[in-house]
Design brief:
The chain contains one helix and seven strands. With 139 residues, the chain is mostly beta strands. The longest helix is centred in the first third of the chain and has 12 residues.
């Protein structure tokens, strides 16, 4: 079966990596930890991730290019010995949650409150500046 990919259009230049990003995002099926993405305004987005049981020192927010990664590690040193649970429904395992950011989207801040990690993002207003590209005459 042949599938048509819109990024193969000759009018869309430089979008080769976009197909890889879409494939990568489509393959991630892990739903831990749960999260929300909400629009606070047309130019502001908030990602809220449920991180109950984690401290700010155990959480890491990293931006590399267009990739936002939130990870958590559990340091078991100094904790009480394993408990005998009758029911264990709170998963306190480490995680990596990745998001792909569009061009121009910037992280404006992050906060941890009531077991939720909030990451605020903003899209700056686009500039109306017009650039004239000089033409070099060769030969």
């Amino acid at each position: 079966m042949t599938r048509t990919v819109i990024f193969d259009s000759p009018f869309l230049l430089g979008f080769d990596d976009m197909r890889l990003l879409i494939d990568r995002v489509g393959r991630s099926h892990d739903n831990y930890p749960p999260y929300n993405v909400e629009s606070l305004s047309p130019d502001h987005i908030r990602i809220s991730i449920a991180v109950a049981g984690f401290t700010a020192d155990q959480l890491r927010i990293e931006v590399r290019g267009a990739h936002l990664t939130v990870s958590a590690t559990r340091d078991r040193a100094g904790e009480a010995p394993e408990r005998d649970y009758l029911h264990r429904g709170i998963a306190l395992r480490g995680f990596n949650r990745a998001f792909v950011l569009s061009d121009g989207l910037e992280i404006t801040g992050a906060s941890l409150a009531y077991g939720l990690l909030h990451i605020d993002l903003a899209r700056p207003k686009p500039s109306d500046e017009v650039r004239i590209i000089p033409i070099e005459v060769v030969g």
